[in-house]
Amino acid sequence: MTASTNFTAMESVVLVAPVTALEFLGEEYLLAGEGPVLSVYSVQSPEKPSVSLHVLHHYRIHGIRPRLQQENVNTVEGDAAAAETSSQDKETELAVFGGKGIRLIRLSPGGRSLHPVGPLVELQDWALDVRWLGGKPCSLLGVSLAHNAVLLLELESGNAVSLCSCEEVCLLYSALLIGPCWDTAVLVGGTVFNQLVLWRPGRTEQNGQSQVERRLLGHSGVIFSLAYHRHCGWLASASDDRSVRVWSVGKLGGEWGCGEQSPTCLRVLYGHQARVFCVRLAQGRVYSAGEDGVCLLWAWEGEGRVGRRFRGHRAGGVRALAISEVGAGRGSWVATGGADGGVRLWREREEEESEKSEGNALVDLKFNGTGCPKVVRVVGVGEGVLGGVVICTDQGEVYLHQDGCWQVVWQGGPEFHSYCVMEVHFVRERGMGFGEWMCAVGNLTGGVQVFPLRQPSAGILLKAKQGKVHSLQWVVVQHASYLLASGAEGCVCRWRIGLELSESRTVLQAQPQRPFLLPPCAKRWLTAAVCLPHRGGLFWVCGDRRGSLLLYREEAGGKGTEESCGEGEIKSDNKVAVNMLSRNAPLQPISSLFGIHGKQGVTCVRERQGAFYSAGRDGCVRVVTISKGTLKIRRVQRPCRGMEWLENVLFSDSNGPDLPRGNLEASEREKKNEGGAKTGVLTGQDGEGCDKEWTNEENRGEEKKGRRGGDEGEGNQERVDEARFVMVGFHSVNFMVWDPQNQEKLLSVPCGGGHRSWAYSPLPDTSTDFHTDPKANSSAIGQGALVFIKQGSVMASHSPTGKTAGQSGLTLREGLHGRGVGCVCLVGSVAGDRGVSEQWDILVTGGEDTVLTVLAIEPQSGRVKVLALITDHISSVRTLTAIRRGGPGSDEQTTSFSCLLFSAGGRAQLQCYRLLIGFDEKFGRPMCQVTQIAGHRLDEQWERKRNRHKTVKMDPETRYMSMAVVRDGKNEVVLALACSDGAVRLFAVNESTGRIELVWENFYHQRCVLSIAHCWVGDHHGKRYALLFSSATDGSIALWDLTSVLNSENKDSWQGPSAPYFLVSVHQSGVNTLAVSEIEGAGQRDEAVVCVASGGDDGQLSALTVKLQFSKQEIEDNSVHLSAQLLSQWSVPLAHSAPVTAVHMISPTLLVSTSPDQRVCLWGVSDRGIHHRGAVFSHTADAAGLQAWLGRGPEGGAWTVVCGQGLQLLRLSDGKTEERSETDKRSKGTERMKVNLTGLYVRT
């Protein structure tokens, strides 16, 4: 063999790793440590790209200490405002440390660049804390070491000045050095014995060691973090025992020494659900964060209760925490860094009382009218306060609560007693921006009273079908308001409600429309409706109480218009009842999805970007599209476990959140301002009640600019991007708002459950630009007011953070998986606005958190964008594969493409999705649309059995370990999967029918099959042969011939091979990974040669060459029997010092491998064996997956991505560029220097 590539070196391009260090530099910048990379984020301008520098080589950054900012959140001793000013006008020196390394870095004015100063200083012990010490002209650092010692270091030159150790020699888990100079400094150490010890390095005894002067007891676990606040005299400690303790120690350091003689414990704070990793102190406030992923602000005056929770990271916890100290009245910033690699930022106002308890304050509105409240709705929410509450009683009376008092708005007759339904809506005057809040009340006899809340006497009585009015719905269609009344026998009557406003009176107009007829079922009434304009008229999508979605078509200018109804226009001046029934037959549904939300019914249907989002009490949100007049399910999304009762969907994408604006007094102001705004309120009790204004065709055209996608359906252009939304529903007895994108709870109110009337109003966050920070919309939606009826009382719940400004938080860096990433797959690439110079690689990752993440990475700038999350798996995702569908080839530059994605993992679950990737020119980044194709589980039949809890499941849960595509056909795709139960299985995936079928399985291995790989070879006649390689825990590799199986037309007759026709033992233990490639031109006329690379638990890397021979007789008979011969076998016994977890074959002569030893290695394969080409240290711990590919475009090259506890993208080069960069680094003085402490005497 001859090498076909010259790659010998690798360099890191993109790194997503746990954030382990955060530090504020004034109020302008946030410094973050992500692996060995130091990044600078602008707090005032989060949209600006960050500045980054690789600082600590192979060490992970654990702390950052600015020199000019002497006082940080751990030890506050000076004026932070001075530090803030100096950080912008002068260069700032930073001491960055982690592991056994310390580095001096200089930050230029304005935060524009980072420059290393001097070498990387490597110690002989771990550095736990670093402090700048004054009184010296040079850069002196006090360094706390892990073995309870303190080192005085001249950082710029790397010279050790002095070393002092404590008499109590033990291992420290955390340390904090306090004091202005070496002679008076105090060290606080958290020992392995769960104690806090205080001693002074400057007070040494004759033996050269210092005595412990204070000892604090109380923790039952090791201490991970320490913080000290000089003005309060508080010392805080965070421990493995899930607690935070606050100690009163007085002033430490300087003339005060070790503080109080008898320190006391002021508070023991329990509130975390797991280990506490970080603690910080501010003036009168305590912050802590831990493994449960929550940052807690403790209410000090509330006897240690939780005052506020900051959530924003996925599983894995918060690893870093920073608090900024600023002047009075400006509050402080709170920053958290997670194990998912994300950085979040919140503004904590000083005027916000920290003693406010966690949760929402429930207020009794003290209803004092006649009768019992039955239905409650909210009107007019603006300026961050609740506008008004409207209720309807069992006496047929409507009350309005405003300005703290109740008043009767309308009194119905006897026909409205004992039963009524009510909905409110903001109706605009035709062609104008202002309007009135309207109320509609239905009764048992088919009457519907519609009236303005400000002028009830102007109301009109509409007459639906004789019988009970089950529900009322308000729907907005192109600025027109429609009222739908669901009556007896499935008849849904409709009116178009208009409004004429004058100075003296309000006139209502009701234009009858052609009614809808619901299909016969047990619970035959409407629960939700929405309308979508199209070229031929209107599409109405309705949900009923049986759980079905129904599609109605109303043609423009023909059937279904008001001219054909035969009733004309009715005004409120007539004072007569309007009979809805006309001579025309009701509209029938043209398409339906029967019972897709279960027997509990559909609770809401919303429309966004041409797609419909329906929710129900089955715990699912279904995304539905219209294709050729038929409803099609695109995707199903679920909330957190236990949230089975979903009531609504709120959108929070870049088009702006669904926030209601305006109140009962708004009409007067709107008349003056000639303008209006959207209105919308979420309501409960078997009705959606969500009003959403649909933009006109002109606005729709503006929205579609910069979007690329296919054309699906009648007049409905499919957009590539997906709407961001939150789910509203009930979790047990709590009302909850859930964000599926960030997997976090935005709001939780203990209201008693959903079996009551309720209404929820999100509050607008006026401090956030929703167009530049769409993620902030979700948090703003979670800061709303809930009103509900409980035991005859009207209760209101307000967000505990009264003002909405600054409550949503900012995302400085998006996080990925909080837990380990087990697999990664490249699906393609898209070109940006700049063409070839802006190339985005699209990757999909799957991990232990059961989530699939679609990522876009731009290697040139290092930007990483999360495009979509898929949460359908019920167990960890272990393997991924993808195939392109249509569009340009994989080697061509394109702005959009489509692919099929397959994912498999625990609980024998296999999923198939279609990804549509495009580029958004408006926001300058890729976008992704996910469509669910099919899903399959081996134990689905067992799950459907009744009383299965009484039976024993004999087979253990099967896990899918590896997957490969063995045939990509036009109608179906055949997949091969390696299974933990010892089987090799073939599945057929049919995209058109949405089904996955098991077509063949074989248990030859009789043990866990760890990996699988596929290869096609051909003879000189053009005939193709399907080869499948499988490996198991016994170290053997088997070769299967699947040609006859795949050539069979009838899947029922697929009789696959009973045993492999070639088997070879390669490793001493399990074979974790396989890679196969055909060697072109290596065989004779009737031969083919393939190269098989493998990595195992024994750390060995092997490469086999197998010759496949086709006999002439067999070729003439068109049979598919091959003979295999092992030509060569090479092995590198200790290729890695840990199990080889992933191997990828860039070409038959070039391999790349990785292992938990955090090395990524390049290997060349030739006729002489396997030889090492190069290696790089990966900052991705527990490496589990790897993929490599050749670069596209004029630059070419190759890329490798490694996943584990994070993600790292590496660029492969020929080594010449690497040599030049290393020469440049040495010329700048960035070499490494080891500090030798041998013979270093203690200075006394």
From TrEMBL:
Region feature (Disordered): 656-719
Family under the similarity heading: Belongs to the WD repeat WDR6 family.
Taxonomic lineage of the native organism: Eukaryota, Metazoa, Chordata, Craniata, Vertebrata
Purpose: Together with methyltransferase FTSJ1, methylates the 2'-O-ribose of nucleotides at position 34 of the tRNA anticodon loop of substrate tRNAs. Required for the correct positioning of the substrate tRNA for methylation. Required to suppress amino acid starvation-induced autophagy. Enhances the STK11/LKB1-induced cell growth suppression activity.
Transmembrane segments: none
PROSITE patterns recorded: WD_REPEATS_2 (PS50082), WD_REPEATS_REGION (PS50294)
Compartments where located: Cytoplasm
Single GO BP term: tRNA methylation
GO cellular component: cytoplasm
Entries under Gene3D superfamilies matching the protein: YVTN repeat-like/Quinoprotein amine dehydrogenase
Subunit structure: Interacts with FTSJ1; the interaction is direct, and required for 2'-O-methylation of position 34 in substrate tRNAs. Interacts with IRS4. Interacts with STK11/LKB1.
Keyword entries, A-Z: Cytoplasm, Repeat, tRNA processing, WD repeat
WD repeat locations: 216-249
The species this protein was found in: Chanos chanos
Top-level taxonomic group: Eukaryota
Chain intervals with Basic and acidic residues compositional bias: 666-675, 689-719
Gene: wdr6
Name of the protein this chain belongs to: tRNA (34-2'-O)-methyltransferase regulator WDR6
